[in-house]
Amino acid sequence: MTRLPGLKALAPVWSRVTNIVAKEARGAWITDVNGRKWLDFTTGIAVCNTGHCHPRVVSAAQQQLSKIMHAQMNIVYSESAVKLAESLQDIMPDPSLNRFFFTNSGAEAIEAAVKLAKQVTKKNNIICFENSFHGRTMGALSMTASKNVYSRGGGQVPGIHFARFPRCSSSCRIPASSGEPCCWDPIDSVEDVLKTRSAPGDTAAILVEPIQGEGGYVLPPPGFFKKLRELCDREGILLILDEVQSGMGRTGSWFAIEQLDDIRPDIMVVAKGIASGLPLSVVCANGESLMDKWIPGSHGGTYGGNAVSCAAAVETINVLRDEKLLENAVARGQQALDFMRVNKWAERFPLKDTRGLGLMIGIEFDPLLKGCAGKVTSAALEDGLMLMTAGSRETIRLMPPLVLSEPDMSLALSIIEKSMSRVFKK
């Protein structure tokens, strides 16, 4: 890999996936400073949903740059921020989510959502889930439980309690209509927390990812979110959905919850894919019951709702809709799962599970084969495919851009198959 003198000046705290120095990128491909091209199945950790440098998004950002680069939200509203609020209303999973607070990153939005929930309910505790990931700022880190490396050397804020997240394989998910629990009833774990560690009267919110991201692209069983919604309504607890990684079309719908139990969240957090690579995140909630009760001046941020990022986000939504990229996510995701089945990956390789929705796909290996997921990603990188692992278990996640073509998906799957053959000598 290319080494430049400036690399030594960068903080080493970032864990390395590759040592590639990128010069430019288009669509699903990155070109390094030596001219080598790489097929990108990481997309900046599920950020560039419209592909790298989509021309329409680039044009929208360029036009905004020539008008106003920064309009601080306490002082003036940028036209692009107002237009983005209008665009977001059209794609929300529930019309009750009609007010939006803009900030810069997923972690910042999680912090803001929890702060809103605590302020409105006047309760302090938050229930999260094991193997979850919500960010690495102090509050978000306290609600994260996917890897212990994230919390090394850092403190934790009080009032955070963890329940089990349902970890069912794709082969054992039981339809909710059967009346049978899937492996075990995951709601029992939440109710146990409420009985033993955080009483409903002390619990402001339950924070949950519809599909666990860093935890390994884990899908819950059918009916889980319906039961969670019913529990929150019964106990007077707010339900916060973290759609940071699963939102903005990645699963084949605007938001993953629409394909699960299609329930109404009280608060929803969106980030990553919303602005095609420019920093932006959003806290979505109802105005009358929540946002309008947020004490003015009690929260904010200098760069939140940056005019250029908002312009990029408006065009990102337009591109996702106009180019039918949600539909393409479904088609390419099905292509991947069909390829794995037809080529008998489960029989040929030590896989525990393959699962996913749209282009949010997890490949989990036998947990006894420590380090094998990393070996597969390293082997794939040698053949020009960029992949990432996920969580503390031996899992690879596929998160290519939603513009991915059928031939590029076939190429990537062939490289993964070849890499597994080399690692497992099969």
Automatic annotation (TrEMBL):
Keyword set includes Transferase: yes
Chaperone recorded as keyword: no
Coiled-coil portions: none
Matching CDD domains: OAT_like (cd00610)
Cofactor(s) listed: pyridoxal 5'-phosphate
GO molecular function terms noted in the UniProt entry: identical protein binding; pyridoxal phosphate binding; transaminase activity
Signal peptide: none
Keywords: Aminotransferase, Pyridoxal phosphate, Transferase
Similarity field: Belongs to the class-III pyridoxal-phosphate-dependent aminotransferase family.
Name this polypeptide is given: Mitochondrial 4-aminobutyrate transaminase (Alanine-glyoxylate aminotransferase (AGAT))
Species name: Andalucia godoyi (Flagellate)
